[in-house]
Design goal:
The complex is a heterodimer. By secondary structure, chain A is an alpha+beta fold. In chain A, 28% of the residues lie in helices and 12% in strands. Chain A is built from six helices and five strands, in the order H-E-E-H-E-E-E-H-H-H-H. A five-stranded mixed sheet of chain A has the order 2-1-5-3-4, with helices on both faces. In chain A, helix 3 packs across helix 6. The longest helix of chain A has 13 residues. Chain A is elongated and about 50 Å long. In chain B, 28% of the residues lie in helices and 20% in strands. Chain B contains twelve helices and twelve strands. In chain B, helix 5 packs antiparallel against helix 8 and helix 10 runs antiparallel to helix 11. The chains are: A alpha+beta, B alpha+beta. At the A-B interface, strand 4, helix 4 and helix 5 of A face helix 2 and helix 6 of B.
Chain lengths: 201, 333
Amino acid sequence: MPPSNWTRREFLEASLKTGAVVATVPAGLPGQNSTEDAATPARPNIEGAVPITLRINGKDHQLRVDPRTTLLDCLRETVALTGTKKGCDHGQCGACTVHVNGRRVNSCLSLALMHDGEEITTIEGLGTPEALHPMQAAFVARDGYQCGYCTSGQIMSAVALLKEPCGADDAAVKELMSGNICRCGAYANIVAAIQQVRKNI
Amino acid sequence: MNTFEFIRPADPAAAVAIAAQSKTAQQGADVRFVAGGTTLLDLMKLNVETPERLIDINRLPLDKVEATPDGGLKIGATVRNSDLAHHTTVQRDYAVLSQALLAGASVQLRNMATTAGNLLQRTRCMYFRDTAMPCNKREPGTGCPAITGSNRTLAVLGTSEHCIATNPSDMCVAMAALEATIHVQGPKGSRAIPIGDFHLLPGSTPSRETVLEPGDLITHVTLPPPRPGSKQVYLKLRDRASYEFALASAAVVITIAGGIVTEARIALGGVGTKPWRSREAEAALAGKRADPANFRKAAEAAMRHAKAQSENGFKIELAKRCLAHALQIATTT
């Protein structure tokens, strides 16, 4: 049991450091973490939680989640992969875009339980700071962001777009990227970054 | 979001048996099928949908697109919008459907959203989506604040004094023009429903949106054989160029011989309380020369019974121009 005055971030980080997998539950809610699971002592037990296995960025994660947990919340709060962002939480902004079995989806409008056994790729699975994915490198080279909040979603969409039916011109790219909103308005540079990668493959 | 039991049935029969325990039919029901989840999860987060049980139909064998013996097409309930839009047969023989699908939502949503889910897509009316507001569709008998309130995007065809909510689907508009048939497996067996009979007008019971009964599972949709030589167009007009719901849209399937319209199938979106097949426009075109004057007459016929609310009167003229322009594109390209 973590101390009840921990922040969520501290709770998630500590859980990761011990290698524990935490069930999705708001940290510090009174009464929710009262039962220890004997088999996995570091894992808070939530009433009604269901076991699932997600293969995330090539690694299997055995998890217990409340049925209400979206794929987005599961990634961020259960697995502590916070590169995927929550914008609108209603499928209107695209910040939460991840790949499921190689196809881009809004992880906010999907339940984690619906993806038991499926292959999830997040921004953390694309490249590393030392070895960026070509699309990540192109976003850097073309200045395809400002505040950065929508960027992981933009890049996940852009990488998926490379394998989708898409015309050669900028208009076609804009149409296929319309599910990713950028409130800073970095659109022109985002299109340039995507076109740069498309020309090089 | 209220908690719920998550169920993954072994086969369609098991799904039907569980769903048959629901007090009401699919939309708003206490037992809900979930496929793509793009409408349902959105509305569950808003507490507009509060199912106690969710039946995940994603792994049922309902995801195929196949030719039918009569030369038509069978589309499984869980075929994703993007897969259907890019299917070679759909692109070749049912282009209006491909165009309509690609005009809707975003790639991410089309990768999730399904054929059956889109048939049950719920309105974007802001009063319906806000549980702090009255809404006859969400809570029967509470009233319709849209009629005296913000109604710019709402319907002008098929409305009642109880509800003016627009059906938001693009896919259904194309399917109406293609005369699709919806196949349902239910507690009493299987049945086929022409798409024109599937959605209900709001009347005095706007909470009931389709003819589905508790337990009914949409298994697939069939399209009749393609009409030889037909031209097909889906034209969608909206507030921004992409990723937005229609203010007005038109699906046109038209056959011309010697400059004369031999057959036309027309449906409108964004303006009706259901996907709006316009037999008036079809009748106005049949046997007439395919020219702009007759296209305008057909558009006038389609909107003759339209009723404007305080903010959406512009939609009547917009829909006329949309249809006339769609006919022009279909017959000149």
